[in-house]
């Protein structure tokens, strides 16, 4: 049982059955000997031919990303037929719940896409990545003096994906303040189109809007806010937090969000946008390719959402997330070798470039990989490269002294949903949140 995750085992849920996908063939190191037989280039090459099975887990909530990873794994196994990848993924619940459940039932993966890195590293579940991989990356997130993940891509900003045709028809300009954003949203509403589509049917989708206002009012000015809360120097009921969610709720109070938002899953937001039932979607750049794929003729734009003063603060700092190796797998040389081969294969330019193109990603390696990208992505890249934009992490991406209790994020998102549904006042909800932080933090530290 995990030291820091013991109390999360109550979240145990059904895990998707193991799906084996492998292939047979001849390793690329095999060569023809003079006597007509075959040998290998070296003893190391011969060892690498020993069959090895790897249990792997990655997030599948985003269909385009999951498809890109699945394709990468298929190609990888064709390149290394002695390595069989067994996927152990789940499409329900948060990814943290999925990881915790897998550990609870004895199915913690060998290789995984890791997001709550410090949580699992502190619990002894992760091994540092092999030193031979360090040189692939210009920077690696450090936790407790070790590097536990190979970052899949750089973290791009969140922003508004919007229908440029609607903006042009209504003579709307990209807003320079939050007030201007609300004004143009009212104009769109008056035209008979829902201004904003929100995929509130998936709790994790609420992260986009909630973190927007957390960054504007808390993290942009004080990235150590969580550590200050632990020390009792700030509170979730403080005035600036109330202001943050007053601004968020104002968008809902003016009916600027599509009426079915609470039952709309994230994967249906694209349909509402491309069929002009809604004009805007606040999300990540990974949605750009999916929107264009759904409607190649869709005139898509992107802009970062400013605050009331016209400043832009958004997600964009390197997060301690990426591909990790379990402590148990690290005891098996064959599995370590498979992990190294997978990372080297994934980040080889000929494989990494199509992966980034499919997922609208930016290289996390030394290689400055470029590819043909839609105009909307180019707009997002300008925000990413703009030195005047304040970059931050999302609430659950902070680490070190700023790590939050494991259950707090989803609890917090749910409370804010209930505020938007008028079930609580903002002040009462945040006072409740502040008390619950203490309860969860104390229980977590007691494990």
TrEMBL record:
Organism's domain of life? Bacteria
- The question of whether Transport is a record keyword is answered with yes
Question: Could you mention a single GO BP entry for this protein?
Answer: maltodextrin transmembrane transport
Q: Which GO terms describe its cellular component?
A: ATP-binding cassette (ABC) transporter complex, substrate-binding subunit-containing
Keyword terms, alphabetized: Signal, Transport
A molecular function annotated in GO for this UniProt entry is: maltose binding
Record's signal peptide = 1-20
Enumerate the InterPro entries for this protein: SBP
Family affiliation:
Belongs to the bacterial solute-binding protein 1 family.
Q: What is this protein called?
A: Raffinose/stachyose/melibiose transport system substrate-binding protein
Q: Origin organism of this chain?
A: Amphibacillus marinus
